[in-house]
């Protein structure tokens, strides 16, 4: 374990952030992907493992918001860094590209089976409102997604439902769902409907109670019984085992609780996010590479990494750093974020691929089947290979770079 700081002891001599985070190759690759979007639109989710070529999925795939929101992220970067030929940002109108790519998501609703993923799908519209708060299309999309998520709330359980089940009394909630409830706050602010905000708070409080182990690690899935409201099972879906900690889930949780603090100011959420982050950092291996599951066996070596878990965690740690009230309290989190980004860059940066990063692990138990939507399948548990890059890894890599610049922790070049 090499990460240090107040969380873990001594003071770290921190290297500066890897230059790849601000490479002109990023806008170059993203623009090429924008220009290659199929008609009717489909979105990149992950790459082929050998050629690094994007695999495209329908708009009602849970990851479909991440590519459009990347246009907004590069628009943000252009406003932070300027658009020049040297930094690569000058080659496109990123806002126009993000807006245009978002149109494939506008008409989605529950009939498309998008379930709790409406939160992920809302991200481009949330960014649109940051640019233009009166865009009626974005407002309507956010409100429609929030209503769809609220319709999945069960008051007896206290959560919004993640996956649909054959037995309606079986009510699974995945830790990822902490990322989706943000849309409820946006819609509550737009409409004044306090119920939406209360649903988000109830979901977070129930998750805080049941998904987190005493050591600050998380279960991926908690199943509730809607008749009794009781927990009936705690298990994994994408992790190594029911008692292990799936790294991307842990990263979603750090972000989700820091985000709850951002929207409510409730210190319990901040304390929870810190606890989850402390587990994450204390359990990183000595090379600083985020494994796909903290408890997955080391052999056969190398134990697969998950670059998306790394970049989500880095972004989450930077949000946690911004939640702290003193620079001294923020520094260990931002130092750790930079270290995680540098270490994943050293491993996974792939100039020859269409994606920015390799070494993403989409769904280990399902073998990362390339033949369809890999999430939510009830595959038998298998510890086999399959390493693919998920677009969300690239998106959070860019977002983390933007956050570092706006937090004055890195320069544009
Ligand atoms: C409003 O937002 C939608 C969805 O994000 C986008 O497609 C559209 O271009 C925006 N309209 C304007 C006038 O900016
Ligand atoms: C507020 O949102 C909830 C959940 O979608 C809905 O049931 C309720 O009717 C809404 N209230 C108003 C006043 O629109
Ligand atoms: C939930 O509890 C009810 C009442 O005890 C029972 O009939 C039902 O089978 C349970 N559902 C699950 C998924 O365990
Ligand atoms: C990273 O991916 C490369 C292939 O792109 C693979 O050879 C290597 O073993 C992976 N390393 C880890 C730690 O996942
Ligand atoms: C991990 O990152 C830290 C901080 O940037 C660096 O000192 C260390 O050499 C990196 N380790 C590897 C294996 O890249
Ligand atoms: C995963 O891959 C193994 C080995 O190639 C194969 O035997 C198994 O059927 C696959 N499982 C799934 C769920 O695709």
UniProtKB/TrEMBL annotation:
The keyword Hydrolase applies. Keywords: Hydrolase, Signal. GO terms for molecular function: chondroitin hydrolase activity. One of its GO terms (biological process) is polysaccharide catabolic process. Residues 1-17 form the signal peptide. It comes from the Eukaryota. Gene3D superfamilies: 1.50.10.10. The keyword Chaperone does not apply. Transmembrane segments: none annotated. Belongs to the glycosyl hydrolase 88 family. This is Unplaced genomic scaffold K443scaffold_41, whole genome shotgun sequence.
């Amino acid at each position: 374990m090499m990460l240090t700081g107040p969380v873990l002891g001594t003071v770290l001599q921190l290297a500066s952030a890897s230059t790849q985070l601000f490479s002109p190759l990023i806008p170059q690759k993203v623009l090429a992907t924008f220009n290659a979007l199929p008609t009717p639109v489909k979105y990149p989710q992950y790459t082929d493992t050998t050629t690094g070529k994007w695999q495209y999925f329908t708009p009602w795939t849970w990851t479909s918001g991440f590519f459009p929101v990347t246009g907004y992220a590069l628009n943000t970067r252009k406003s932070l860094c300027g658009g020049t030929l040297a930094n690569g940002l000058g080659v496109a109108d990123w806002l126009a590209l993000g807006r245009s790519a978002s149109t494939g998501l506008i008409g989605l609703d529950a009939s498309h089976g998008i379930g709790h993923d409406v939160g992920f799908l809302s991200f481009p519209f949330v960014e649109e409102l940051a640019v233009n708060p009166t865009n009626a299309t974005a407002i309507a999309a956010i409100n429609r997604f929030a209503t769809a998520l609220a319709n999945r709330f069960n008051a007896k359980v206290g959560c919004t439902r993640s996956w649909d089940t054959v037995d309606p009394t079986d009510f699974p909630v995945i830790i990822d769902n902490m990322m989706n409830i943000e849309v409820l706050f946006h819609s509550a602010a737009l409409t004044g409907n306090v119920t939406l905000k209360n649903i988000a708070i109830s979901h977070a409080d129930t998750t805080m109670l049941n998904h987190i182990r005493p050591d600050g690690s998380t279960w991926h899935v908690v199943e509730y019984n809607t008749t009794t409201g009781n927990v009936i099972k705690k298990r994994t879906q994408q992790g190594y085992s029911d008692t292990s900690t799936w790294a991307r889930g842990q990263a979603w949780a750090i972000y989700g609780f820091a985000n709850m603090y951002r929207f409510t100011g409730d210190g319990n959420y901040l304390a929870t996010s810190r606890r989850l982050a402390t587990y994450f950092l204390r359990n990183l291996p000595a090379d600083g590479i985020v494994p796909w599951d903290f408890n997955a066996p080391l052999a056969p070596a190398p134990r697969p990494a998950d670059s998306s878990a790394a970049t989500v965690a880095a972004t989450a740690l930077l949000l946690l750093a911004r939640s702290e009230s003193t620079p001294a309290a923020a520094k260990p989190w931002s130092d750790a974020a930079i270290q995680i980004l540098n270490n994943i860059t050293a491993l996974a940066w792939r100039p020859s691929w269409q994606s920015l990063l390799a070494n993403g692990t989409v769904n280990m138990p399902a073998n990362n089947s390339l033949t369809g939507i890999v999430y939510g399948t009830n595959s038998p548990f298998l510890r086999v290979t399959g390493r693919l890059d998920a677009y969300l890894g690239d998106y959070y890599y860019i977002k983390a770079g933007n956050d570092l610049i706006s937090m004055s922790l890195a320069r544009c070049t």
